[in-house]
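Record pair follows.
FIRST:
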Amino acid sequence: MTLSLWGHADFRRLWAAQAVSAVGSRITRTALPIIAITSLNASASWVAVLSAMTTAPGVLIALFAAGMIDRTRKRPLLIAMDVARAALLLTLPAAALFGLLTMAHLILVAALTGAATAAFVLAKSAYLPRLIAVDRLVEGNTKLETTEAVAEVAGPSGAGVLIQAVTAPVAIVVDALSFLWSAWWLKRIEAQEAAAPPSGPRHPLADIAEGWRACRAQPVVFALLAAEITFGLVGGFFFAIYMIFALRTLALDVATVGVIIGVGGIGALWGAFAAEPLARRLGYGRALVLSLGLWVAANMFIPAAEWSESLAIPFLVAQQLIGDGFLAAYLILAVSVRQTALDPDVQARAGATFEVVGGLSLPLGALIAGPLADVVGTGAVLWIAVAGAAAPLAILAASRLWTLQRLADLRPGGVTGGT
């Protein structure tokens, strides 16, 4: 066994595929609402619809494609989704060039790329346990999340400057090219992937039922799933309102907002490195719950930024640096629990169950937040989101997850956390 996954040639190729596309994705994530707000003069409600449509298609993918993903080879699908996303994104600068860009076009591209991204995420999560050994999953997820963290630094901050210099539609070209880069590296992976056995239910709804049963039968995974419902709702509030809060309520410029969001990548970077040491020191479950709790606490800095003009930027930076760090640690620990506890042949269907829950709750939160912000203001909506974030924390703290000490306890013959 190599001392590090950096010695695993195919993992390096998977990492290389992600590295550049992760930066490009942040550019588009930053650019889409900016196009809506500055170029198309969209209201908070329309920005919320745009935000919802980037995630809502994941529900359809989870319903109709998860079983197929489990029963097919993952790498060709990953490549196809990269190429599809590149083609879709290139239609935006083309439309802008001829003065044809509309809100409907923007929402359609957001929806279709969201669907392709959902399929990609499910396939990648199911692919990793087939590419590397189970006992290297935390290391693998940490390395991939570290890359995402670096992208969070470079992507939004670079996006703000790039968008201000060449406009948001042109900046999206960078993301399209990054997906083609990703497809090229995925194609170079040499490991031969055997297709999963074609047994089991084939009807899409039966596949979802199979994923639900797999999650329901594992107490620790089920606790994560229950928390995901309220986590998605409050996440939808932040997702829909943050950009409009920063640009309109706080009157910050695009470049400044991009740099602030980029600081979150620095937070996510230290959070990725901290995940495994926290789990060793505190026990796996306690580290996971503590990480989520500190993310909730850090989010109070966002609406508090409205109270003092001189502290607005420091508060937003503090939230990105602290909150995104603990969120990254939480996500690494949570996905590693799921990948370890569940059978490899139901990974995509179980992941789809999480995708359905998140894909319904996050856009629902976004769609509630937009009209609510038009009535009570963006700051008030964000305070509601902070209060609501205590719900998933309470669910996990009260679950058997709290006593989980090691990932090895989730394997056959181990324990699932105790009572």
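SECOND:
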Amino acid sequence: MTFKYIFDKLFSFLGLIILFPLLLLIYFLILIKMPKGPVFFKQKRIGKHGNIFTMYKFRSMLVSHSGSSVSVKGESRITPFGAFLRKYKLDELPELWNVLKGDMSIVGPRPDVPGYADRLEGSDRRMLLLKPGITGPASLKYRNEEELLAEQNDPQRYNDEVLFPDKVRINIAYLDNWSFWYDIKIIIYTVLGRDL
């Protein structure tokens, strides 16, 4: 996957340069609309081989809140402007910096918070051979994940018992069938907001 590594570096570098005006605009809008707290949300996530790294996103929630590790559409802890950022995935743009640093890839499994990797058993642990990604086949299938979770009586349980195992299955299939053109297809479908 050497070509994938080179592509990630070039794509993230160019992306940060081209999107810099948009990143700057979002930065100042967060300062104005959500002044109580930092602009960026930083959280420890699980990366390749189970290594922990710090992932960067634009903050979309209130600073003082108590909540689960899953986000549900319409939660009071998500600010109105944060909901806008999340709807169009703009909150994830700072992850391009994680890709440039080498913590993440453009395409791959979404990085989980510590604890979920411990649930991987047997051949499913091969998922840790992949760098986590900004987008991926599981992200496309569950691009409306927050809306889906909002429909459940117990969102955390539904995530743990239904979504997480299915995402693992999808990501293992991605690992086994990877090609550069498959990555390009996933990126295009992500931009178009379509499922594979």
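COMMENT: The mean pLDDT is 92.
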